[in-house]
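Support case: user asked for a sample of complex input and structure output to validate their parser. Sending the pair below.
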Amino acid sequence: MRVTIYDVARDAGVSLATVSRVINHSPHVKESTRRRVQETIERLGFQPNLVASALTTKRTRLMALLIPSITNPACAQVAWGVEETAAEMDYNCIICNVGADPKRQAHYVNILIRKGIDGIIFSTPSYDDGLVLDLSRRSYPLTLMARDVPAAQVNRALTDDKAGGALAAQHLLELGHTSFLLVTSKEEVLQERARGFVETIRAQNLDVIPVEAKGSDITAGLDAGVRLLSLANRPTAVFATTDLLAIGIIAAVHCMGLDIPRDLSVVGYGGLIEPEAMQLPLTTIVQPMRDMGKAAAQLLFDTLQEGREPRQVVVEPKLYIGGTTGNPSR
Amino acid sequence: MRVTIYDVARDAGVSLATVSRVINHSPHVKESTRRRVQETIERLGFQPNLVASALTTKRTRLMALLIPSITNPACAQVAWGVEETAAEMDYNCIICNVGADPKRQAHYVNILIRKGIDGIIFSTPSYDDGLVLDLSRRSYPLTLMARDVPAAQVNRALTDDKAGGALAAQHLLELGHTSFLLVTSKEEVLQERARGFVETIRAQNLDVIPVEAKGSDITAGLDAGVRLLSLANRPTAVFATTDLLAIGIIAAVHCMGLDIPRDLSVVGYGGLIEPEAMQLPLTTIVQPMRDMGKAAAQLLFDTLQEGREPRQVVVEPKLYIGGTTGNPSR
DNA sequence: CTGAAAGCGCTTACAG
DNA sequence: CTGAAAGCGCTTACAG
């Protein structure tokens, strides 16, 4: 049988309340009493049962992270940051692979609440707005990532995709490029990256040729690369709104015997592909997903701890200069 | 205020015990009573508080997975399998990135136990045997992966590394190879893979030239590849005990203008590198890490559910034939 | 500074 | 088949 607070109280000759105060570092305990109780706790090897304390305090010190799949490297980075920050606060992190199905999300959320999980971080691109709004109305602590639900009173950890696009533009401008291609698909976040890029280029009175990709993976990139090569007035620089698009473009361009970065500079977006995994490390806009996770967990913790108003944190992207960009050769 | 079992009992005109029986699908409830209670539960939107029930049943329906880091793709696969199986059983999965520090492991374990986590899966190469033995003695439900503690009474989900090495040998033998190189470092699992390979080759009265790598990453592979090229009697086939070693060897061989698989067949081990990520997909022995995770969770669940004796499951590796192996050209 | 008592929301023998 | 009561192991006003 495990030793309980009751055993400690009896052994130390004090009441349950006093032992509880010592455990919880209440300042209202005489120093000599504290020492005596502390000594008994150690001697008996008492470990407070947090399930019992959760029943009264309504705090399990557990948070959950909803992601499409932990095998997605971006999700893994987020999970790393969340778990890391949670652990610092004596929290533990429950991972839920919810896929893309809103029903699965709702099912998970329901069980998490019944298990007394203190708060949830949503990092799924396709959650059910109604679910989030409902939780927000019942003032259940939440942090949203990856997508927003404007009407909800929740914490938010957001990326600045527009700033990322602008970073890509600045880098290429600084290298001296004057003709640009933009490859992106229609997804909203990607459009935001594109907007930041285009605005920055236009501010210099330069122009951007847009190419719409039919997706955001390597295949779509290959296709875009082929189209790029057929352009009459081939630009010297291209910004792809995802790394996979960029990789596809590079592969297509290589096939046609062009050299990167001599004939074409390429900037991607993401930063989750290890530079060592590529022959030529990709210049890209790095999304600090781990930092996002950390911020998300911190926001949730603050809400839990101080019950403070939901806040919003914007995590800035960074430029990583690999080997796929250089000065234009013409 | 949330609705409790008490509200349901009063509204339905029955006792707490009866409501509890209905929730827990006890067969000893009159059908008409069950229906009435069920109707009340739905009308009031009652959701049982599992923290309260955990306090009496000693079951939180939470399990934990200890891994070095979730950003390691092998760990992510394991976590995927564990979480997937856990979810099927109405369990949730707590992820703990314990790194390589046994102290961190002990700290996590301590807090997990206090939080009432039902069982733990150890998937870390460097855990503290003493900790595992201690938990095992206190008959705390455990599943071990990645490494064994022979004396412990625990579940085990193991890989058959020797069989994997044998698979590699069989594949190369079937292709007609007669001269072999083995590249491995000294780590115990890798030695096991090597043993399976060598024994299978020797059973055919053929011989293997061993090359010791100073590590198991790409750099070590590059180095081994260079040494391979300097051999007087160059073999036609190489088995590397990790995929990264194999990739390094391939890169080195490519540099020297040799063609793979014409001049050299290469088999790796792991299977976590996406075939699409490589110019030439690597032939490799696939460790089904997700299946390992599933098995580990299932074993833990069985212990939890039926209190049955610890068991052991061996997950078999599989051969994946990519483009780096072929018939020998001489 | 300390203790007695009630309470958190369930489950579980036990009795009927 | 059903209910009254005790109990799981803590915390928290309240009183002193």
